[in-house]
């Protein structure tokens, strides 16, 4: 994937809650950084790839916690389901981190595409519902 192909943040990704949108935008910028590290593409930067992915996972965890706080505060009835999605994503991302750390071959494109597609789909299908909780 070239830098040009990487889907940047756009207004289409916006859900209308400023704090959440800001964190979503930052998540996509972290993925773009990870994509750039991947593109250097040699085994020497394996550690750097793992570090970038770990940072992405840490930030994602923090972001999920802030969404879960909003949902709890608002007694959101989709809370359990939404949290389950978060949990599944973190465990899949951790699986990919294990792959980066231990596999001989890293499937860069698949990893980036999976993370990006999951996130954007989740923004639009699940996070967008949070917009109706506040206001
Ligand atoms: Fe989110
Ligand atoms: Fe979410």
Task: State the main characteristics.
135 residues, Four Helix Bundle (Hemerythrin (Met), subunit A)
What's the topology here?
Blueprint: H1 18-39, H2 46-73, H3 79-102, H4 108-125
Helix pairs in contact: 1-2, 1-4, 2-3
Bound molecules: fe (ii) ion (FE2) (2 copies).
Would you summarize the structure shown here?
The protein is mainly α and 135 residues long. The protein contains four helices and no strands.
Account of the 3D structure:
By secondary structure, the chain is mainly alpha-helical. The protein has one domain: Up-down Bundle (Four Helix Bundle (Hemerythrin (Met), subunit A)), CATH 1.20.120. It contains four helices and no strands. It has helices spanning 18-39, 46-73, 79-102, 108-125. The longest helix is centred in the middle third of the chain and has 28 residues, at 46-73. The chain is elongated and about 45 Å long. It starts with 17 loop residues before the first helix and ends in a 10-residue tail after the last helix. The mean pLDDT is 89. One fe (ii) ion (FE2) binds next to helix 1 and helix 2.
């Amino acid at each position: 994937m070239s830098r040009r192909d990487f889907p940047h943040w756009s207004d289409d990704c916006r859900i209308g809650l400023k704090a959440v949108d800001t964190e979503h935008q930052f998540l996509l910028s972290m993925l773009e950084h990870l994509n750039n590290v991947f593109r250097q593409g040699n085994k020497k930067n394996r550690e750097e790839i793992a570090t970038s992915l770990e940072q992405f996972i840490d930030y994602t965890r923090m972001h999920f916690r802030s969404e879960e706080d909003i949902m709890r505060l608002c007694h959101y009835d989709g809370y359990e389901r939404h949290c389950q999605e978060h949990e599944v994503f973190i465990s899949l991302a951790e699986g990919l981190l294990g792959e980066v750390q231990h596999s001989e071959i890293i499937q860069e494109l698949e990893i980036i595409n999976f993370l990006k597609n999951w996130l954007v789909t989740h923004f639009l299908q699940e996070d967008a519902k949070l917009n109706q909780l506040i206001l």
